[in-house]
Every structure is written in C-alpha cells, then in structure tokens.
C-alpha cells in the first residue's frame, strides 16, 4: 500500500513539475470546452437564396418578399437567366435557387395551379435537405395565402374535411438549444481523450528514458506498478470532469437533472476502460512517438464513431456494433441521458456493464502484454 | 561463500549470440571486473543476473538465490546501476533518493552511513533536478540510489563511461570503500586501466569469457617478450615495425607502441632495424605487460 502511495506521489510530482502539463490539464480542457461548444453548431441559418423571377408579377414579388422576411434565408441575388442562376450555385454564392417561370400568376388565376423549380446545392447533403425543407415551408405558406385569396371556395371545401393537425413539444431540451445537447458530449470526449493520451505516453516514457529498468530491479510488484500508474490519471480525469461540469454550468447554464454521483461513478468506470486501453498502447510501443501515433489512431475512431456529432442510431448496423467498445460512445450517451433527461442507474446500467467488460478485457490484455515484453 | 555463481549461461537475440556458455564464480566481498569491448555481451550478462532477462540456457545464483526462481529475493538485495542514467530527470536529487529508499521499505536516514561518502558530495545540490546535474554528479546520485537499501550485491554496468578522469578515479576509490563494507561488486568497463583496480577480472569478447584471473597474475602470465618503442614519426614507426620479422603484434599504447615478438630479441637489434629506416629519437626498452596487452593477446 505504501509502495503504491509512493508511486502515485512520484507520478503527480512529475506531472505538476512539468510546466507544459499543468495548464494542459486545467486551462486547456475548459478553453476547448468553451470554444467547441460555441463553434460546433448544427443549426442551419442564413441560407443564401437566389430567385430567378421570370414572371415579374405581384405574386412572384410577394413570394420573393416572403423569402426575404424569413430568418432562415438571405436573398443573395436575382439572376436574369438560367446560366447566371447556375453560376451562382457553382460559385457557392447561393445555396438554393428558386426558378419562378413566366406566367405563374396567370396560371394561378386560370388553372388554380402553378409550377416552380428549386435548385439545391446538395454538396453537404444534410444542409441541402434542410434548405429544401425550409424553402418548401415558405412556399407552402405562400400557397395557403394565395389559395385563400384566389379560390376561397376550395379552402372552405377542404376545411370541412377532417384534417390531422400535429402539435409537438420538445422534451428534455425545450428550446432546442444546441449547446445543451453538445456540452455534455464534448466534455465526455475531452476527458476521455486527455486521459487516453496521458496514459499511453506514460509507461512508454519510462521505457524510453530507461527508468523502467531501474524500477524493474526493485521489489515493486507488477500490480503495484500498474495501480501506481493508473490511479493518478484517474484522479486527474475526475478533476477535469469536475471543472468541466462547473464551467458548463456557469458559462452555458446546462441543466444537470440527474445525479451528479451517477455521472462521476460512470466516469470512474469509463476512465478505467480508457486507462486500460492507454496501458495497452504503452506496452505495445517502444517510443513515445509510436505511442502517439497509435493513440492518434484510436482517438480518431473513438471521436468519429462516438456519437458526438453523428448519432450512432443512424449508423449502419455493423458500425453500431463497432461502437460497443468505444468509451466515448458510452460516455457521451450517459452524460446526455443523466444530465438532460435525469436518467437513473437503472436506465444507463447497460453502459456500466459495457464499460466493465471493456476495462476487464483491455486491462487483462495490457497486463498480459506487459509481462510478455518483460521490460 | 560464492556470492555470484554463473553456470553455462547463454543468450541469443535472434541469430546474434550475445553471451555463450558463461561460467563465473565470484566470492563474497569481491570486486570483480568484467572487461571487454562494446558489444562483448557485458550488459546482457548483467541483465540476466539482475533478473531482467531470461537466459536461453544455464543457470545462475546471486547471493545464493536463483535468478529465475528467487527473483523477488534478489531484487530486494541487489543494487543495479544500468549503463545509461536511468533516474527521474525531472525529480530532484533528494526526491530520487527518497523515492528509491521508500520503494525498498527503508529511508535515507536509516542507511545514511553507507552512502554518506558519496552523497555528501552531491548533497549541496539536493534541490536540483537530476537532469541538470553534471555527468560525474549523476553517477554519484545513481550509485547512491543503488546503495540506499544496503544491497549485498552491487552491479555496475560501465559506470565510468563518459565520465571525466578525475571523477573516474574518485568513483573507483568509492568502490574500494564499499568493498571494505563487504559488498560484492560486479563492475564492467571498457577501460583497461580500471581493470588493474579490481580483485579479479574476467576478459569477455564476443559473448565468451576468455580468461579469469587477478590482474597481476594475468599480466605476469603474459607469454611473449614485450617492448615499449618510441620514435619521432609514430605512424611510420608502426608501419615499419609491422615489417620487422620477429614482430608478433604491434599497437599504439599511450605515447609509445607496444611491440611483442615471437622470440626473445635484443633491444639493440630493434634499434638497428629502425636506424636503418631513418627513424630519429628512437626509444626501445623492455616493459611489463598490462591488462590491455593481455587482452590484445587473446
């Protein structure tokens, strides 16, 4: 026990003596949390719309006005021919081009119908889809107004028939505040990555400098050495989670509905899994440079398949299986569930189980490879 | 009692045979030198005896314990100073020493006597980080850390490589004092002059022990006539002596050349040979063999 304490003390001494390390563990995560949370926004706003109006009628101008009045759209041009309209899309000066054909107003009066065309820049598929949806809403709205004026009798007819009206409420994040959704996830990701890199670099550093040689001829037992290496980083991880939660509360006023102890309890288990993976990387690498590259590889997969930006539910089935051992995926999920929904242990126990399995698996593997390398 | 016993230890790294069939018996309280060039297998042997590496064949005991079966006991009673400085550079002198003391379940105060002579020299810098010490001071700190748990056996792998001449001499004086405290010391060095300071030396080359003897015996047993030869143009001298018919071997030694011959030769004969080749300021005199001569002879 004394040996472990001495090892922990030595480890913390080294961490805090390193001038670059202290801010890296305290200030940088908070700054990252703030910057990322402000920047990482999925909201689509200020879509540039160009309207090629061939009709030049009262109605076509009213439709243009409607687009201009919408908070989602910015009028970015009024091309006078098709080539110009396409050029605007090409040059990224318009996200969407609305073509109003000549005779729209006339058709509306005569035939009670008119056609229009939307050209949507769909390089970014989801943005294109959203732009299309917004534009259709504006046009439908316009459609209803026009119908009321031109053919009130049709409107009266349809009003008589039973129509389903859907009302909806946004639960758990009533204002659809993107940050409320992102902050818990970003925080979970930051803590995981930080601890992963720290652990991956640590043991390999002792090997690179040669100090492991000196440690190995002492009576330190292997489990003592491993605990002495892991516990300091577990403490640092929990500390970072704490300052992250405080910063999230103070700066973004994110709700913490569920139990704070549940969050920390899960964090411990999650960090154990991360530490085990970090240890494994450390035993596989001979130099810090190698360890960095392996850690980098894991980091990329963990982040991109962690459900922070793209929901895991919409990944293909095989990819969803792949996210099972990913600590970030579970951490992000649990953070969101507990903080925003107030989930209890029973609701998130599957994540506890998953992390316990992952820690055991990688922990055993790390100890085993550590013995094999014998260094 | 034998403090270190090595029976037929062999170890290969892939196809490279690092050490082969090593046999050694080192007495308790002996200062034993392992002398050999770089790559001779010294470090491999150290690592096997320090329980860091498993041998392919053979067995060995350190302080009566088997290096495989009783490795825990050995680790408790062994002081090991690897060739490369391997303390924590970002911890201070005192923190390093205290760390290793605590790991061995002791304290600096408890064994202060043992390290006093050495540690006192670096104590003024005890708040300094180990990484900022000079080479000689690092060496002293490493030795202090290796001694802090009062080991029975001390392994020093090339402790004086890269250390200045004065510090080297001091270091060997320290070893003599430790020997007086009945600590068995196994030290390796590529410097032949240090070999003279050991009780016994083992010459090792290409993974094999070539001979084991006290340095005096080793040099006394040198089988060939040996001369110290000097002249103004040393390079030409070396070239010419190689063409001298009785020459067995000739190699530079300090400011002179050491010339060994196949059969006894009159120094006058050598002088005449060199005079005929226009050498000036020629010095030729019979000399005693050193460890280096013995080593070159093998």
TrEMBL record, chain A:
Main location: membrane
Membrane spanning stretches: 21-40, 181-204, 225-247, 259-281, 293-312, 352-370
GO molecular function: ABC-type transporter activity
UniProt GO cellular component terms: plasma membrane
Pfam families: ABC2_membrane_3
Domain ABC transmembrane type-2: 148-373
Residue ranges the record marks as coiled coil: none
Similarity remark: Belongs to the ABC-2 integral membrane protein family.
The name this protein goes by in its record: ABC transporter permease
Organism (species): Flavilitoribacter nigricans (strain ATCC 23147 / DSM 23189 / NBRC 102662 / NCIMB 1420 / SS-2) (Lewinella nigricans)
From TrEMBL, chain B:
Residues annotated as domain ABC transporter: 4-231
Gene3D superfamilies listed in its UniProt record: P-loop containing nucleotide triphosphate hydrolases
Annotated Pfam families: ABC_tran
InterPro entries named among the record's database cross-references: AAA+_ATPase, ABC_transporter-like_ATP-bd, ABC_transporter-like_CS, P-loop_NTPase
Keywords: ATP-binding, Nucleotide-binding
The keyword ATP-binding belongs to this UniProt entry's keyword annotation: yes
Gene Ontology MF term list: ATP binding; ATP hydrolysis activity
Database matches in CDD domains: ABC_DR_subfamily_A (cd03230)
Protein name (Swiss-Prot/TrEMBL): ATPase
